[in-house]
Amino acid sequence: MRKNRIFSQYLNLYQTFDTIMSDQASILRKRFSQNNTQPRQTASRRFRSLSLTSGKGGVGKTNIVINLAINLAKRGKKVFLIDADLGLANIDILLNIAPQFTIEDVLTGRKHINDIIIEGPVGIHILPASSGISEMQTLSGKQQMSMLRELANLKTRYDYILIDTGAGISSNVLRFNAAADEICVVTNPEPTAITDAYALMKIMSSKYQVHHFNLIVNQSEAAEARDVYNRLVRVLNQFLTVDLELLGNIPRDPNFVKAVKRQEPISLSFSNSPAAKAFGKLAQQVDRQSADPVFKEKDTSFWKRLGSWKKK
Ligand SMILES: Nc1ncnc2c1ncn2[C@@H]1O[C@H](COP(=O)(O)OP(=O)(O)OP(=O)(O)O)[C@@H](O)[C@H]1O
Ligand SMILES: [Mg+2]
Question: Most exposed: 135, 158, 167, 250, by fewest CB within 10 Å?
Fold first, then answer.
């Protein structure tokens, strides 16, 4: 009961915030829809891009994106993993790799993307970010364009591009999400994380007209994940025109901490653990979605949408 009351209080707060922001949002929406009047290309797509994102920090995005990448690679897919948590990079740490160059070198024109891609476990390719560089957190228009040009050169090589965003609703996070074909919102069952997940979807839907989201509930069993999903759907149906799909759940697993300390993905170091098995199922579900004819007809021009950054 108390949890529900706190949850509603948070939501009320966000509704008030939304009212204040609505004028600005409607101007942005108008601008965005003007930029997207052209029919989007579908025929030439070979890959699918998914961002993993969250309102609240520390809910498990980076660990999930790495283990999802590994499990997709185990299924024979070519996976490109972008660390888009600019300034607070974590993928390299969790995989115990020390990149000599990072995305920063690409953005400043010192290197091409091809020079900095690192091969990770099971053949996944990684675009590492920088840590502790505050200027990296907001990309300038010029940097965005240079990144776009560089990324566009890679587009035919991969089946999946997975993007690990930072937490929250900063412009970089929102833009990477808007550029991805699919957004996977990660939450855990705590009311604060659920409320922040709602806030993120609200902003993505009003500012970027995203109306479909996937949900991954971390640190939960299937029944609890279903409950979190139902609660979110109830609120979304009340206030937004948004469709939410439960992609899967990852159980709370003590092996996680051990794997993180070893700087090895749990899918490899504790491959029989409950969480590792759940990642196998999650990858299967993502692959199943990709095979769905509805998905195949969807707009997938990641690069174009990333390019629309400069117009906003
Ligand atoms: N299913 C789980 N079971 C147990 N511990 C977990 C689980 N998922 C994540 N953790 C723990 O939570 C911590 C935070 O995870 P992670 O760094 O992936 O979160 P994040 O969302 O990427 O954080 P940030 O918002 O700071 O980028 C990890 O150190 C990991 O040990
Ligand atoms: Mg992270």
Answer: 135
**Rounded Cα distance, 183 and 289, in Å:** 13
**Which ligand 1 atom sits closest to the C-alpha of 219?**
1
pTM: 0.83
pLDDT in tens, 172-225: 899 889 888 899 999 999 999 999 999 999 999 999 999 999 999 999 999 999
CB 267 within 8 A of CB 124: no
Which of 54, 66, 188, 256 has most ligand 1 atoms within 8 Å of CB, for mutation?
256
- Domain ranges, ordered by start, for the chain: 46-84+157-297
Q: Which of 53, 63, 67 has the most ligand 1 atoms within 8 A of CB, as the residue to mutate?
A: 63
Which residue's alpha carbon is at the smallest distance from atom 5 of ligand 1?
256
For 46-84+157-297, give the CATH class: alpha beta
